[in-house]
Write a structure and sequence with these properties.
This protein is an alpha/beta fold. The protein has two domains: 3-119, 3-Layer(aba) Sandwich (Rossmann fold), CATH 3.40.50.1980; 165-303, Nitrogenase molybdenum iron protein domain (Rossmann fold). 42% of the residues lie in helices and 15% in strands. It has twelve helices and 13 strands. The strands form three sheets. Strands 7, 8, 9, 10, 11, 12 and 13 form a seven-stranded mixed sheet that branches. A four-stranded parallel sheet has the order 2-1-5-6, with helices on both faces. The termini are far apart.
């Protein structure tokens, strides 16, 4: 079976199922595992590189308002790859090529390939995509084994967190953009709760929302996790410096004593795939280091203050 993945989380899932050799094409953002680098790239972004976060937000907002595409799909290359299975998404036009663009392109493809849309809004949905992809790729046994492995890791964290008294659960906010502020929605509140915190910002199963400093100050989080969508640690630091130096944060910190941690949003928290389980383990260790061990292969959250 020849598989094309048009979003990073699907690429990670396909490889997690042991199907790396079946992958014949990926998106421009697919960078994990490293073995996928060098595969034909089928998408490109319409947003120029090296822009500051405020400019990116304005460009994205304007393009979505005008119903303009944020990503392009290389239909000619897609046709040449002759895929049997295309894995894409219809959850977020800001995150990947739109499902409508893919649907139009499929009409040009020979052999009537199967197309599946992944639309997870919570951790349980992400686990269900494991079964969906495994079934579509005709490897249900591998899917069952992989799903069992992921579920066991979640259960370990959940069971340990269940022993933590309510009074020792800090109020936690996750921010996935800083200019302007955006909360972490969808699966983020669930991950915070499983990790032993109390989510005080963001709405479960709802996309990230633009927030004001007043809203963040009213939420009064004990901890803030900065997990910028699409940014790794180095790029995130460009925005973090201004955030910590702002008068608004200084006011919040003076009143609440909020601790701030930086995590790799691009790798772990923004992609609704298998590494959300990594994100859970990273966050749990940062919130309750004496309760939750950090697996050796995972990076710890970086304390910023």
């Amino acid at each position: 079976m020849r598989i094309v993945s048009l979003l990073p989380s699907a690429t990670e899932l396909v490889c997690g199922l042991g199907l790396r050799d079946n992958l014949v094409g990926v998106s421009h953002e697919c960078d994990y595992p490293a073995s996928v680098i060098g595969l034909p790239i089928l998408t490109s972004s319409q947003i120029p590189e090296n822009l500051d976060s405020g400019t990116i937000d304005r460009l994205v907002t304007d393009q979505l308002k005008n119903d303009e595409a944020l990503y392009s799909l290389d239909v000619d290359t897609l046709v040449g790859l002759q895929p049997d299975l295309i894995v894409t998404q219809a959850l977020c036009d800001v995150c990947a090529v739109s499902g409508n663009d893919v649907a139009r392109a499929v009409g040009s493809l020979p052999g009537n390939p199967q197309v599946i849309n992944l639309e997870p809004e919570c951790l349980e949905d992400v686990l269900e995509t494991v079964q969906l992809v495994a079934q579509s790729a005709d490897c249900r046994d591998k899917g069952d084994a992989y799903l069992d492995q992921l579920q066991k890791r979640i259960c370990v964290v959940q069971e340990k967190s269940a022993q933590i008294p309510q009074v020792k659960r800090p109020k936690v906010a996750l921010l996935d953009w800083l200019d302007p502020l955006f909360d972490g929605g969808h699966w983020s509140p669930e991950i915070i709760q499983l990790a032993g915190g109390e989510p005080c910002f963001g709405n479960a199963k709802v996309p990230s929302q633009r927030r004001t400093w007043s809203e963040l100050q009213d939420a009064a989080p004990d901890m803030i996790f900065i997990a910028l969508c699409g940014f790794g640690i180095d790029r995130s630091m460009q925005d973090v410096t201004g955030f910590l130096a702002s008068a608004e944060f200084k006011k919040l910190h003076q009143r609440v004593g909020t601790k701030v941690f930086l995590v790799d949003g691009n790798a772990y928290f923004s992609r609704p795939g298998p590494r959300l389980v990594d994100a859970l383990e990273i966050m749990a260790n940062a919130i309750h280091p004496n309760v939750h061990d950090l697996p050796d292969e995972l990076p710890s959250a970086i304390p910023l203050n």
